[in-house]
Amino acid sequence: MDDHQEEAPEKVKLFGMWASPYVLKVKWALSIKGVEYEYVEEDLRNKSDDLLEHNPVHKKVPVLLYRGKPVAESDVIVEFVDEAWSYRGGRILPDDPHERAMARFWVRFVHDKLSPPIWKWFTAAPGEGQKAALGAAVEQLQVLEDLLALGGKDFFAGESVGLVDLSLGALAYVIPMYEEIIGVRMVTEERFPSLSAWMGRFLDSPPVKDHPPPVERLKPRYRAMREAFLNMG
């Protein structure tokens, strides 16, 4: 088969779970590339033999099956999708080596510096601990605000959704849910004008419109998570 020949839908399979932001990130990447695939919904309380076979190390979703070969971990899958279908759709990673390295740097920033204080803020009881987590999250959000303002582009790497946008994308719908559940605003247009505008553009972008986050279905799930953490405290 020629490398650029269309893949039959049955050649690509995605194992996922409806509430996972990591699975949604992979769906967005596949949408950017226009890749057809079979989707398999997993019950993570009763994982299928296929999932355990294809991801025996982490036993998690997402897992992408390509020509019978599995690829696991969402960031790895996104980069694989960009390379495997480099001849079609928009580029997810920049072509320039330095820009590509910087995109990976900011992905790590989201995972290591930004997401932890936001989660801590959401799961903490009202009080000094929650205020401290909010302050830490706002400090890291300001870094992204400055990055967007300096770049002056619609998205982090240009005029279309790229790697950093996909990695940060879940927060575009998760933060508003957290704010609604807690009753405290974290991201406002006054405080973060560039980031607020980016959130709107991202949620209105073609890949997200193809696979919109199930916000209303997620809200009770996140409310229950917060209640569970508060009860543990």
Automatic annotation (TrEMBL):
An example molecular function term from Gene Ontology annotations: glutathione transferase activity
Annotated ranges, domain GST C-terminal: 96-222
The reaction(s) this protein catalyses: RX + glutathione = an S-substituted glutathione + a halide anion + H(+)
Listed InterPro entries: Glutathione-S-Trfase_C-like, Glutathione-S-Trfase_C_sf, Glutathione_S-Trfase, Glutathione_S-Trfase_N, GST_C, GST_C_Tau, Omega/Tau-like, Thioredoxin-like_sf
GO-annotated cellular components: cytoplasm
Gene Ontology terms: biological process: glutathione metabolic process
CDD domains for this protein: GST_C_Tau, GST_N_Tau
Domain GST N-terminal residue range list: 10-89
Xref: Pfam families: GST_C, GST_N
EC number: 2.5.1.18
Gene3D superfamilies per the UniProt record, alphabetical: 1.20.1050.10, Glutaredoxin
Enzyme category, top tier: transferase
Keywords attached to this entry: Transferase
Family to which this protein belongs: Belongs to the GST superfamily.
Protein name (record): glutathione transferase
